[in-house]
Design goal:
- The chain has 407 residues and is of the alpha/beta class.
- It contains 18 helices and 7 strands.
- The strands form 2 sheets. Strands 5-4-3-6-7 form a 5-stranded mixed sheet, sandwiched between helices.
- Helix 9 links the parallel strand 6 and strand 7.
- Helix 10 runs antiparallel to helix 13, helix 11 runs antiparallel to helix 12 and helix 16 packs across helix 17.
- The longest helix has 22 residues.
- The chain is elongated and about 95 Å long.
Length: 407
């Protein structure tokens, strides 16, 4: 372990002898900036001495006779703003600085700052303004774009990475964004798959973009998941898109396709005004929290009697989708809680909508994928723990799907 050298107190006191206000230390021409410049340039001189084999003004001892040859100037951008640095040169041009490599114009970590701001939904212009305001660093839109574009190869590798053989639950959903395409702005569908793995951890499985949401494209998505290693899915939670369940069953015939209860409730409440929404939501909860299918059907009948005159589309929707709702009642409470209360994809979608709401449109598909990938990496940093009650759910999965569990 490298020993940390402490700075002598008398040196600090000497440096701060003229200190009167914070700007004297952290301002544009403050002590910290001056010290950074001095230390960096001194370190570069030490690197040059190591490269040549002799210190400044000492005899030349290297076989090639190489010597110092003045200095070049560059401006480094960083959280301290802009910092002019003088880089020593040698006559043979063989000196390769380690602290500040050739062509580097941004301090280590500055690119990460740009990517972090981008991942939070800030536009290129907003990032440019923020960096100027916060750090006094003039950064061009082209530079910001080039920094974030470097993520594209990372996105491709992530999108094709191998996946675990079993995911007990997979949530499949879609959100829509405006993208410029062949000169016109079009609404495109962003397909998203989130799995709950055997450890009870949430994992984003992939992102896909298409002209519209459709069962045909979902078939391509689940086929890709199969090709990347997922051999079995116990429960697939989906929205009410026509043909969607059949697309999943074509690739995973044993998967139980469950209509997402959260989607169904949310869509139902769209028909209800704010004053009666809580009451309707309570009556819907009585349906999906029933102990058995028979009880759930009884509660749905009671719902129809009470609400059909005011909101006929709600019960009609539940009746129409009943065959895809009732698999939910085949599972014990431990698994039901995971299916319903996890609501994994809804919380992710909410976060994604938040970062896109300030953008009128995206310039191209690549920009969408880049932002969504960075945002998802940011969101998933919080997924550090298994789902609550996962052990109880896994025990039930082990019993329920014993013949499909890999040894």
């Amino acid at each position: 372990m490298t020993e940390t050298k402490s700075i002598p107190t008398d040196l600090i006191d000497a440096l701060l002898s003229g200190y009167k206000k914070p700007e004297d230390v952290i301002g544009e021409n403050g002590l910290l900036k001056q010290l950074t410049k001095a230390i960096v340039e001194r370190a570069l001189e030490a690197e040059m001495a190591e490269h040549l084999g002799h210190s400044k003004h000492n005899p030349v001892i290297n076989p090639s006779g190489n010597t110092r040859n003045g200095k070049s100037k560059k401006t480094l951008k960083g959280e301290f703003g802009e910092l002019p640095i003088e880089i020593p040169r040698d006559r043979l041009g063989s000196f390769e600085p380690q602290l500040i490599p050739k062509h580097q114009t941004r301090w280590t970590g500055f690119d990460d700052k740009i990517i972090s701001l981008y991942a939070r939904g800030m536009t290129v212009r907003e990032i440019q303004s923020h960096l100027t305001e916060m750090y006094g660093a003039e950064v061009s839109p082209t530079l910001i774009s080039s920094v974030t574009d470097a993520v594209n190869d990372e996105v491709k590798a992530w999108q094709s990475r191998p996946l675990d053989p079993i995911f007990p639950i997979v949530y499949l959903d879609c959100i829509h964004v405006k993208v410029r395409d062949t000169g016109a702005v079009r609404v495109k569908a962003i397909y998203l798959a989130i799995g709950i793995n055997m450890a009870g951890e949430k994992e984003v499985l992939g992102l896909w973009i298409a002209q519209t949401e459709g069962a045909k494209f979902w078939l391509q998505v689940v086929t890709e998941l199969k090709n990347r290693g997922i051999q079995d899915i116990f429960i697939a939670c989906v929205d009410g898109l026509k043909g969607f369940p059949e697309a999943i069953e074509a690739v995973y015939p044993k998967a139980a396709v469950q209509l997402c209860i959260v989607h169904l409730v949310r869509n139902s409440l769209n028909f209800v005004g704010w004053k009666r929404r809580a009451e309707v939501a309570t009556d819907l909860k009585a349906i999906y929290q029933s102990a058995t299918v028979d009880e759930a059907e009884q509660k749905l009948t009671e719902f129809e009697v009470k609400w059909n005159e005011a909101y006929p589309p709600i019960a009609q929707s539940w009746r129409r989708n009943w065959d895809r709702i009732i698999p939910f009642f085949d599972y014990p409470p431990e698994i039901r809680r995971i299916i319903y209360t996890t609501n994994a994809i809804e919380s992710v979608n909410m976060s994604l909508r938040k970062i896109t709401k300030n953008r009128a449109s995206f310039p191209n598909d690549e920009a969408v994928m880049k932002l969504f990938y960075l945002a998802l990496m940011n969101i998933s940093k919080k997924w550090t723990m298994p789902l609550r009650d996962w052990k109880a759910a896994l025990n039930r999965f082990t019993i329920q799907f014993e013949d499909r569990m890999l040894s």
